Protein backbone atom coordinates (compact mmCIF):
# COMPACT_ATOMS: atom_id res chain seq x y z
CA UNK A 1 0.00 0.00 0.00
CA UNK A 2 2.76 2.42 1.02
CA UNK A 3 4.78 1.42 -2.05
CA UNK A 4 1.79 2.10 -4.33
CA UNK A 5 1.25 5.53 -2.74
CA UNK A 6 4.96 6.39 -3.12
CA UNK A 7 4.87 5.44 -6.79
CA UNK A 8 1.74 7.57 -7.31
CA UNK A 9 3.39 10.62 -5.68
CA UNK A 10 6.49 10.15 -7.82
CA UNK A 11 4.37 9.96 -10.97
CA UNK A 12 2.49 13.15 -10.03
CA UNK A 13 5.77 14.92 -9.34
CA UNK A 14 7.11 13.86 -12.73
CA UNK A 15 3.90 15.05 -14.39
CA UNK A 16 4.24 18.47 -12.74
CA UNK A 17 7.85 18.75 -13.85
CA UNK A 18 6.86 17.88 -17.40
CA UNK A 19 4.08 20.45 -17.32
CA UNK A 20 6.46 23.14 -16.03
CA UNK A 21 8.97 22.24 -18.73
CA UNK A 22 6.26 22.44 -21.35
CA UNK A 23 5.07 25.81 -20.01
CA UNK A 24 8.62 27.15 -20.07
CA UNK A 25 9.08 25.86 -23.61
CA UNK A 26 5.87 27.58 -24.75
CA UNK A 27 6.50 30.73 -22.71
CA UNK A 28 3.34 30.17 -20.67
CA UNK A 29 4.77 29.95 -17.19
CA UNK A 30 3.69 32.77 -14.89
CA UNK A 31 6.74 35.11 -14.76
CA UNK A 32 5.81 36.03 -11.19
CA UNK A 33 6.81 32.51 -10.08
CA UNK A 34 10.40 32.73 -11.28
CA UNK A 35 11.01 36.50 -11.04
CA UNK A 36 9.62 37.01 -7.56
CA UNK A 37 7.64 39.92 -6.15
CA UNK A 38 10.42 42.54 -6.07
CA UNK A 39 11.60 42.05 -9.65
CA UNK A 40 8.02 41.79 -10.88
CA UNK A 41 7.25 45.13 -9.24
CA UNK A 42 10.19 46.69 -11.07
CA UNK A 43 8.90 45.32 -14.37
CA UNK A 44 5.35 46.53 -13.74
CA UNK A 45 6.64 49.96 -12.77
CA UNK A 46 7.79 50.43 -16.38
CA UNK A 47 4.25 50.00 -17.71
CA UNK A 48 1.95 52.91 -18.43
CA UNK A 49 -1.01 53.38 -16.10
CA UNK A 50 -3.51 51.72 -18.46
CA UNK A 51 -1.34 48.60 -18.91
CA UNK A 52 -0.64 48.45 -15.19
CA UNK A 53 -4.37 48.53 -14.47
CA UNK A 54 -4.98 45.72 -16.97
CA UNK A 55 -2.26 43.57 -15.37
CA UNK A 56 -4.39 43.44 -12.22
CA UNK A 57 -6.76 41.10 -14.09
CA UNK A 58 -4.18 38.31 -14.62
CA UNK A 59 -4.55 36.64 -11.23
CA UNK A 60 -5.03 37.35 -7.54
CA UNK A 61 -1.28 37.50 -6.98
CA UNK A 62 -0.89 39.97 -9.84
CA UNK A 63 -3.80 41.97 -8.45
CA UNK A 64 -2.05 42.39 -5.10
CA UNK A 65 1.24 43.53 -6.65
CA UNK A 66 -0.22 45.73 -9.40
CA UNK A 67 -2.44 47.55 -6.88
CA UNK A 68 0.36 48.53 -4.52
CA UNK A 69 0.79 52.14 -3.41
CA UNK A 70 4.47 51.94 -4.32
CA UNK A 71 3.62 51.50 -8.01
CA UNK A 72 0.68 53.89 -8.19
CA UNK A 73 2.42 56.66 -6.26
CA UNK A 74 4.74 57.19 -9.24
CA UNK A 75 1.78 57.06 -11.63
CA UNK A 76 0.05 59.77 -9.60
CA UNK A 77 3.17 61.94 -9.73
CA UNK A 78 3.32 61.52 -13.52
CA UNK A 79 -0.38 62.34 -13.85
CA UNK A 80 -0.21 65.43 -11.64
CA UNK A 81 2.98 66.77 -13.23
CA UNK A 82 2.35 70.21 -14.78
CA UNK A 83 -1.35 70.09 -13.90
CA UNK A 84 -2.73 73.46 -12.82
CA UNK A 85 -5.03 72.11 -10.10
CA UNK A 86 -4.79 68.83 -8.20
CA UNK A 87 -8.30 67.72 -7.14
CA UNK A 88 -8.96 67.76 -3.41
CA UNK A 89 -11.05 64.63 -3.95
CA UNK A 90 -7.85 62.65 -4.62
CA UNK A 91 -6.12 63.81 -1.44
CA UNK A 92 -8.44 62.07 1.03
CA UNK A 93 -6.88 60.54 4.14
CA UNK A 94 -6.45 56.77 3.89
CA UNK A 95 -7.08 56.76 0.13
CA UNK A 96 -4.99 54.26 -1.84
CA UNK A 97 -2.79 55.66 -4.61
CA UNK A 98 -4.74 53.64 -7.17
CA UNK A 99 -7.98 55.26 -5.98
CA UNK A 100 -6.30 58.69 -5.98
CA UNK A 101 -5.21 58.15 -9.58
CA UNK A 102 -8.67 57.02 -10.70
CA UNK A 103 -10.44 59.91 -8.94
CA UNK A 104 -7.98 62.40 -10.44
CA UNK A 105 -8.65 61.15 -13.95
CA UNK A 106 -12.39 61.33 -13.39
CA UNK A 107 -12.20 64.85 -11.94
CA UNK A 108 -9.92 65.99 -14.78
CA UNK A 109 -12.73 65.18 -17.21
CA UNK A 110 -15.24 67.24 -15.24
CA UNK A 111 -16.73 70.12 -17.25
CA UNK A 112 -19.08 71.53 -14.62
CA UNK A 113 -17.54 74.17 -12.39
CA UNK A 114 -18.60 74.53 -8.75
CA UNK A 115 -18.42 77.26 -6.13
CA UNK A 116 -15.50 75.34 -4.61
CA UNK A 117 -13.57 75.77 -7.85
CA UNK A 118 -14.39 79.47 -8.15
CA UNK A 119 -13.39 80.24 -4.56
CA UNK A 120 -10.31 77.99 -4.46
CA UNK A 121 -8.50 79.78 -7.30
CA UNK A 122 -7.14 83.21 -8.03
CA UNK A 123 -8.33 84.32 -11.47
CA UNK A 124 -6.61 86.37 -14.14
CA UNK A 125 -8.87 88.81 -15.95
CA UNK A 126 -8.67 90.51 -19.33
CA UNK A 127 -11.05 92.13 -21.78
CA UNK A 128 -11.77 90.51 -25.14
CA UNK A 129 -11.56 92.23 -28.50
CA UNK A 130 -15.28 93.07 -28.56
CA UNK A 131 -14.99 95.18 -25.39
CA UNK A 132 -15.11 98.98 -25.81
CA UNK A 133 -11.79 100.70 -26.58
CA UNK A 134 -11.90 102.61 -23.29
CA UNK A 135 -11.69 99.39 -21.25
CA UNK A 136 -9.12 97.73 -23.49
CA UNK A 137 -6.88 100.81 -23.20
CA UNK A 138 -6.78 100.25 -19.44
CA UNK A 139 -6.06 96.52 -19.73
CA UNK A 140 -2.41 95.31 -19.45
CA UNK A 141 -3.41 92.40 -21.71
CA UNK A 142 -3.93 94.81 -24.61
CA UNK A 143 -1.31 97.37 -23.58
CA UNK A 144 1.33 94.62 -23.41
CA UNK A 145 2.73 95.75 -20.08
CA UNK A 146 2.53 94.47 -16.52
CA UNK A 147 0.75 91.47 -14.99
CA UNK A 148 -2.92 90.77 -15.65
CA UNK A 149 -5.46 91.93 -13.04
CA UNK A 150 -6.68 89.39 -10.49
CA UNK A 151 -10.22 88.56 -9.46
CA UNK A 152 -11.39 86.74 -6.32
CA UNK A 153 -14.64 84.80 -5.88
CA UNK A 154 -15.93 84.44 -2.32
CA UNK A 155 -18.28 81.88 -0.69
CA UNK A 156 -20.83 84.60 0.12
CA UNK A 157 -21.37 85.14 -3.63
CA UNK A 158 -19.32 88.32 -3.92
CA UNK A 159 -16.46 89.12 -6.29
CA UNK A 160 -13.52 91.44 -5.57
CA UNK A 161 -10.33 92.75 -7.18
CA UNK A 162 -6.98 94.07 -5.98
CA UNK A 163 -6.85 97.68 -4.74
CA UNK A 164 -5.97 100.15 -7.48
CA UNK A 165 -7.11 97.86 -10.31
CA UNK A 166 -7.98 100.26 -13.14
CA UNK A 167 -10.09 97.66 -14.95
CA UNK A 168 -12.29 97.17 -11.89
CA UNK A 169 -15.42 99.30 -12.02
CA UNK A 170 -15.46 99.92 -8.29
CA UNK A 171 -19.05 98.72 -7.93
CA UNK A 172 -20.28 95.80 -5.89
CA UNK A 173 -20.27 92.53 -7.81
CA UNK A 174 -21.90 89.18 -7.22
CA UNK A 175 -21.88 85.95 -9.19
CA UNK A 176 -24.03 82.89 -9.74
CA UNK A 177 -23.57 79.49 -11.37
CA UNK A 178 -26.41 78.29 -13.57
CA UNK A 179 -26.78 74.68 -14.74
CA UNK A 180 -29.82 73.29 -16.53
CA UNK A 181 -30.35 69.69 -17.62
CA UNK A 182 -32.08 67.74 -20.35
CA UNK A 183 -33.46 64.66 -18.62
CA UNK A 184 -31.60 63.51 -15.52
CA UNK A 185 -27.94 63.68 -16.57
CA UNK A 186 -27.35 65.60 -19.82
CA UNK A 187 -26.36 69.24 -19.26
CA UNK A 188 -28.18 71.66 -21.54
CA UNK A 189 -26.62 74.90 -20.29
CA UNK A 190 -23.84 75.65 -17.86
CA UNK A 191 -22.47 79.12 -17.28
CA UNK A 192 -21.32 81.67 -14.71
CA UNK A 193 -22.82 85.15 -14.61
CA UNK A 194 -21.49 88.25 -12.85
CA UNK A 195 -24.15 90.82 -11.99
CA UNK A 196 -26.22 91.28 -15.15
CA UNK A 197 -23.32 91.07 -17.55
CA UNK A 198 -23.45 88.48 -20.36
CA UNK A 199 -23.09 84.89 -19.19
CA UNK A 200 -19.64 83.30 -19.28
CA UNK A 201 -19.33 79.87 -20.84
CA UNK A 202 -17.09 77.45 -18.92
CA UNK A 203 -14.15 75.53 -20.42
CA UNK A 204 -11.80 72.95 -18.88
CA UNK A 205 -8.26 72.89 -20.30
CA UNK A 206 -5.98 69.87 -20.67
CA UNK A 207 -3.92 70.97 -17.66
CA UNK A 208 -7.16 70.92 -15.60
CA UNK A 209 -7.30 74.70 -15.30
CA UNK A 210 -10.52 76.61 -15.96
CA UNK A 211 -11.47 79.33 -18.42
CA UNK A 212 -14.68 81.37 -18.39
CA UNK A 213 -15.41 83.76 -21.20
CA UNK A 214 -18.04 85.84 -22.98
CA UNK A 215 -17.70 88.35 -25.82
CA UNK A 216 -16.54 91.11 -23.46
CA UNK A 217 -14.09 89.52 -21.02
CA UNK A 218 -12.29 86.35 -19.94
CA UNK A 219 -11.37 84.74 -16.61
CA UNK A 220 -8.57 82.13 -16.36
CA UNK A 221 -7.67 80.23 -13.19
CA UNK A 222 -4.07 80.64 -12.05
CA UNK A 223 -2.20 77.33 -11.48
CA UNK A 224 -1.86 76.43 -7.80
CA UNK A 225 -0.42 72.91 -7.89
CA UNK A 226 1.35 73.44 -4.54
CA UNK A 227 -1.83 74.32 -2.62
CA UNK A 228 -2.09 72.02 0.39
CA UNK A 229 -4.98 69.56 0.25
CA UNK A 230 -5.79 70.09 -3.41
CA UNK A 231 -8.62 72.17 -4.86
CA UNK A 232 -12.23 71.79 -5.89
CA UNK A 233 -15.07 69.85 -4.26
CA UNK A 234 -14.61 67.03 -1.75
CA UNK A 235 -17.15 64.96 -3.67
CA UNK A 236 -17.77 63.97 -7.28
CA UNK A 237 -19.35 66.80 -9.26
CA UNK A 238 -20.00 65.70 -12.85
Task: Give the tags.
single chain, 238 residues, alpha+beta, 8-stranded antiparallel β-barrel, 20% strand, elongated
* Portion in strands: 15-25%
Helix fraction by DSSP (H/I, runs of at least 4): 25-40%
Order of helices and strands: HHHHHHHEHHEEEEEEE
Instruction: Name the overall outline.
Output: elongated
**What is the CA-atom radius of gyration, in angstroms?**
28 Å
Low-confidence stretches: none
Organism: Morus notabilis
Pfam family, one: F-box-like
Domain F-box: 35-75
Region (Disordered): 1-31
What do these coordinates show?
The structure is a single chain. With 238 residues, this protein is of the alpha+beta class. It folds into 2 domains: 2-108, no CATH class; 115-221. Helices cover 39% and strands 20% of the residues. It has 9 helices and 8 strands. Strands 1-2-3-4-5-6-7-8 form an 8-stranded antiparallel barrel. A hairpin with a 3-residue loop joins strand 4 and strand 5. Helix 2 (31-45) packs parallel to helix 4 (60-66) and helix 5 (69-80) packs parallel to helix 6. The N and C termini lie far apart (70 Å). The relative contact order is 0.14. The model has no long low-confidence stretch (mean pLDDT 86). Residues 1-31 are annotated as: Disordered. InterPro entries: F-box-like_dom_sf, F-box_dom. Residues 15-24 have a biased composition (Acidic residues). This is F-box domain-containing protein.
Amino acid sequence: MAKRKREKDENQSEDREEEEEEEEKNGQRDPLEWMGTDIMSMVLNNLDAHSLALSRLVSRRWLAIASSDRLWASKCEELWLQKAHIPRLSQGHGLTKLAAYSLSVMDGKRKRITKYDLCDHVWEFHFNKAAPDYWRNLDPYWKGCGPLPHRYFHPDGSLTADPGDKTWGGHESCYCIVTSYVGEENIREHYVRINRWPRMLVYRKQDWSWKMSNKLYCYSSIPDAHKQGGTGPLFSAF
